[in-house]
């Protein structure tokens, strides 16, 4: 904490230094000024929390300094130390925020008490200021999310506008007099790869940056407002309600702002002029369609409108036409055969003059269905959860491989497709290898004979292997020993049977391979944490 001593007499400043236990008050910096004018310069530079000032000084006296402090350093607390017992000076001190008026000669106790009072007042005010700062930060964080959700709701259901009309008028200048609008969309799906890579670890920051740039242009003259679409992972929506016929040109200005700030341009889709709020959804859909139908193989413009549609695409090939070739390549495990099958598909794609995001999305959905079908064919009998697990590394939506100019890169797409197909082939080969592995044959035997009195010696004899070898290899493959694996199977089956209230515990025990009911109960509690009877009561109560 800092204190400033302002007095034209140096011996007074020295006396104040000696009379106060600064360390006890938490003050580590003491500044001095011989007059009010010098004091203002020090206050601007150091912003002291406490100021002790005389009233009668040359150049700028204490009266003027107090007035200056109220206007320029309102957070500081001021103690007046004066040799004049003058009511007008006291009144001036109180009027301009002074916390105390002390007469010379200075009484040490009175001075320390006044300083303590000023520090307490400053601390209390600072706590309030900090609370307000935290509230402002929180509000600034929440507010954009609130507008995102509210405006996304109006896009989806225009009737919700009425309940928010007053707020929209007050905050965004979207008044009730506005009866027409246009919607534009900026989508990250078709953004330059280099920019997305730069923000790959923080996509929220990318959204924040893009929206801020848009709103710097839009909100200056109340032209519109940009927000993150609540129902999309990749869209920023621009709701426009002023100078609608010149909207395309204004989007070009925003794009120039993107180029200056982020060194990139973006694709905008824009809908036609429609009634607001009744037909705002229609304008949004037109903007979305304009983006999805733009030709990814060409760069004619950055602003896409259904008023100026791209060349209609010719009948596109379907991915399923190549399913059999790719299926055989996967089964072969040959990198050469896989690359050849994919090359045949890509050669066909290259003949298309127009490829849209809509078409890419269709091909991706075809490929997704094919992958699921292949997994079910290649790994017969696996559960739905296992299918999902095997496909978990694959993207959940279409990836648009664009080059630095935002044009579709067929070479990148080919690489990504090859990677995915090779991954599928490797999984198949690994599974085939496991099928031949004797340890997996033993695991399958346990699955089928869990209800019998299975022993390690019996398994060793059946598979012509030593007990030690089976134990070691089984633990390496499944990370549990054989007896625990068998116990897990039995407990899993037992839990299903225990849900049948007509089966006695002893019957359940026998059905999963335990002749002794008490031993079964002991093993069950060890593995599951509760007794079979407790499990039955719990499961049947759900």
Automatic annotation (TrEMBL):
<dbReference type="InterPro" id="IPR020449">
    <property type="entry name" value="Tscrpt_reg_AraC-type_HTH"/>
</dbReference>
<dbReference type="InterPro" id="IPR018060">
    <property type="entry name" value="HTH_AraC"/>
</dbReference>
<dbReference type="InterPro" id="IPR041522">
    <property type="entry name" value="CdaR_GGDEF"/>
</dbReference>
<protein>
    <submittedName>
        <fullName>Response regulator</fullName>
    </submittedName>
</protein>
<dbReference type="InterPro" id="IPR001789">
    <property type="entry name" value="Sig_transdc_resp-reg_receiver"/>
</dbReference>
<dbReference type="Pfam" id="PF12833">
    <property type="entry name" value="HTH_18"/>
</dbReference>
<feature type="domain" description="Response regulatory">
    <location>
        <begin position="2"/>
        <end position="119"/>
    </location>
</feature>
<dbReference type="Pfam" id="PF00072">
    <property type="entry name" value="Response_reg"/>
</dbReference>
<feature type="domain" description="HTH araC/xylS-type">
    <location>
        <begin position="440"/>
        <end position="538"/>
    </location>
</feature>
<keyword id="KW-0805">Transcription regulation</keyword>
<dbReference type="Pfam" id="PF17853">
    <property type="entry name" value="GGDEF_2"/>
</dbReference>
<keyword id="KW-0238">DNA-binding</keyword>
<feature type="modified residue" description="4-aspartylphosphate">
    <location>
        <position position="54"/>
    </location>
</feature>
<dbReference type="InterPro" id="IPR011006">
    <property type="entry name" value="CheY-like_superfamily"/>
</dbReference>
<dbReference type="InterPro" id="IPR009057">
    <property type="entry name" value="Homeodomain-like_sf"/>
</dbReference>
<dbReference type="InterPro" id="IPR018062">
    <property type="entry name" value="HTH_AraC-typ_CS"/>
</dbReference>
<keyword id="KW-0597">Phosphoprotein</keyword>
<keyword id="KW-0804">Transcription</keyword>
């Amino acid at each position: 904490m800092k204190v400033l001593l302002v007095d034209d007499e140096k011996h007074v400043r020295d006396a104040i230094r000696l009379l106060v236990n600064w360390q006890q008050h938490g003050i580590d910096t003491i500044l001095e000024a011989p007059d009010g004018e010098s004091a203002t310069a020090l206050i601007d530079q150091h912003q002291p929390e406490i100021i002790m000032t005389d009233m009668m000084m040359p150049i700028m006296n204490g009266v003027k300094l107090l007035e200056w402090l109220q206007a320029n350093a309102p957070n500081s607390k001021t103690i007046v130390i004066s040799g004049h017992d003058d009511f007008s000076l006291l009144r001036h001190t109180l009027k301009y925020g002074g916390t105390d008026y002390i007469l010379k000669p200075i009484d040490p106790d009175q001075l320390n008490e006044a300083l303590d009072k000023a520090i307490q007042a400053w601390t209390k005010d600072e706590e309030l200021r900090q609370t307000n700062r935290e509230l402002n930060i929180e509000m600034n964080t929440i507010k954009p999310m609130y507008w995102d959700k509210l405006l996304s709701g109006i896009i989806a259901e225009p009737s919700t506008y009425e309940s928010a009309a007053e707020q929209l008028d007050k905050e965004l200048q979207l008044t009730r007099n506005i009866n027409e609008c246009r919607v534009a969309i900026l989508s990250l799906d078709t953004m330059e790869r280099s920019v997305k890579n730069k923000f790959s670890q923080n996509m929220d920051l990318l959204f924040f940056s893009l929206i801020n740039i848009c709103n710097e242009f839009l909100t200056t003259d109340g032209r519109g407002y940009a927000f993150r679409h609540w129902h999309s992972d990749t869209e920023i929506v621009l709701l426009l309600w002023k100078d609608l016929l010149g909207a395309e040109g204004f989007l070009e200005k925003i794009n120039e702002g993107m180029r200056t700030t982020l060194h990139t341009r973006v694709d905008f889709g824009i809908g036609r002029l429609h009634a607001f709020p009744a037909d705002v959804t229609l304008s949004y859909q037109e903007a979305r369609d304009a983006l999805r139908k733009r030709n990814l193989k060409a760069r004619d413009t950055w602003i896409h409108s259904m008023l100026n549609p791209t060349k209609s695409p010719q009948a596109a090939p379907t991915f399923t036409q190549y399913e059999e070739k790719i299926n055989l390549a996967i089964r072969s495990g040959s990198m050469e055969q896989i690359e050849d099958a994919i090359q045949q598909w890509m050669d066909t794609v290259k003949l298309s003059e127009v490829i849209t995001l809509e078409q890419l999305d269709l091909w991706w959905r075809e490929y997704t269905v094919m992958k699921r079908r292949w997994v079910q064919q290649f790994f017969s009998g696996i559960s739905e959860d296992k299918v999902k697990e095997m496909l978990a590394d694959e993207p959940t939506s279409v990836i648009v491989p664009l080059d630095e100019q935002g044009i579709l890169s067929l070479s990148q797409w080919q690489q990504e497709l090859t990677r995915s197909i090779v991954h599928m082939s490797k999984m198949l080969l690994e599974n085939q290898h496991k099928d031949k592995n004797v340890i997996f044959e033993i695991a399958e035997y346990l699955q089928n004979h869990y209800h019998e009195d299975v022993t390690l010696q019996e398994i060793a004899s059946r598979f012509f292997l030593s007990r030690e070898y089976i134990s070691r290899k089984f633990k390496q493959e499944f990370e549990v020993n054989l007896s625990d694996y068998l116990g897990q199977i039995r407990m899993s089956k037992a839990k299903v049977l225990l849900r049948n209230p007509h089966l006695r515990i002893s019957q359940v025990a026998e059905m999963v391979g335990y002749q002794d009911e008490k031993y079964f109960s002991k093993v069950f509690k060890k593995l599951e944490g509760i007794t079979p009877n407790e499990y039955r009561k719990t499961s049947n109560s759900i």
